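Researcher: Going back to the complex we discussed earlier. I've cleaned up the inputs and rechecked each line, so this should be the final set. Can you rerun the prediction on the complete assembly and write out the structure?
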Amino acid sequence: MRGMPNESSRKPRSDALHNRRRILDSAQAAFLESGIEVSMTRIARRAGIGIATLYRHFPDRESLVNEVFRGKLDTCLARLYEAAADPDPWRGFRAFIEDLCVMQVTDRGFNEVFRAAFVGGVIFDEQRIQAENTFAELARRAKAAGRLRADFVRDDLTLVIMANSGISADTEEDAVAASRRLAAYLIRAFEAAPDHRALPPVPRLGPHPVLR
Amino acid sequence: MRGMPNESSRKPRSDALHNRRRILDSAQAAFLESGIEVSMTRIARRAGIGIATLYRHFPDRESLVNEVFRGKLDTCLARLYEAAADPDPWRGFRAFIEDLCVMQVTDRGFNEVFRAAFVGGVIFDEQRIQAENTFAELARRAKAAGRLRADFVRDDLTLVIMANSGISADTEEDAVAASRRLAAYLIRAFEAAPDHRALPPVPRLGPHPVLR
DNA sequence: ATCGAAACGGAGGGGGAACTCCGGTTGAGG
DNA sequence: CCTCAACCGGAGTTCCCCCTCCGTTTCGAT
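Model: Rerun complete. Updated structure for the full complex:
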């Protein structure tokens, strides 16, 4: 509820609620098209409200970004838990990576936020840790089933996210196609096989600056 | 020679030559650190010259970018021809992708320019076509040798470039490590094997906006 | 040493973005 | 219906960027 002006007990006015909704919708659309760096003025204009009203509801860009993507991040985590619940861990593993890539590539803002959240770990922290543990457990099961190569590590998911974040194309359709093909290649590479050669060493992937 | 003020016959002044060199060096460093969008003012300050002098030598950002990366792009093409000359096409294929990834990940500006050049094909056009043909021939030989999967297509190289362009890390060392690991995974996925499943369809990858 | 063309660099116009101030407006409880 | 806190929105401030104009300085040929 950060950014909401009324501090204590009092139901917010209906026009304020209406404007808040319009801001969130416009911001969502603007972020999707142009990324989270889109100017606040553009968001306000798109919503048909004044710039001051936007800032009253969300004191800075970060709080707006947070509110917009909280929901989408939740559905993303839901996909992970769904995949982790699959009795066939390798099928779950593949499904998660495929879904993730599509979600990332169809929303430029989400791509940036998700990348920041997972690679940098600056925002949405508690959810991220839980998600990492769930993913690690899924990977462990897939390894135990002999389908995922044993030297797959947690940071390889970060690698997937970073690689997929580089995909783009003119139309959403083409971007999805490109992302699917990349995901298919990567999944193929992750699959256990008798002729494995050693992989290059695991990189140390620290925080990455996307927001500020 | 675009951007050089003296239109016809006359040897340039020594101070002009000196400043030109300083501009190119500073721009190279600035692009490497901050990407090609870095402000012209910063480049000029770094070179210790006035902003007007910068603009006199290079009338717009594009001509400066062109001049800075012409050399690096040439060495990149040299790597390709070297790889194409390898009697073992699969070894050449792998070496080229590995080298390419490292070059891309160690210079942010080059990453952006190279991505634009290869994905969009807007700049450095004639070189790009020749490079594409050379790469296609290398891939053909690698397929004929039974080492590269038959359904590998030209646009898969674009996929590699885009994926690798998403890699980043705190230190150059870590970025290289991450890039190496990604490249190893992709090469593994490209390798021919008896148990191939069909890949998702090839995406149509059109021009991509990086420079303006 | 002279002198003109060439090169230099700072000041400034124009634009856009982030964020704030404040006078006018409106919704909802009494 | 009245009132007033809550809300609205535009104008204004500051900052940084691109790029140009123009008075000053410097090179180098004579």
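Model: Worth noting: Confidence is low (pLDDT under 50) at residues 1-7, 207-212 of chain A.
Researcher: Good, that matches what I expected from the previous run.
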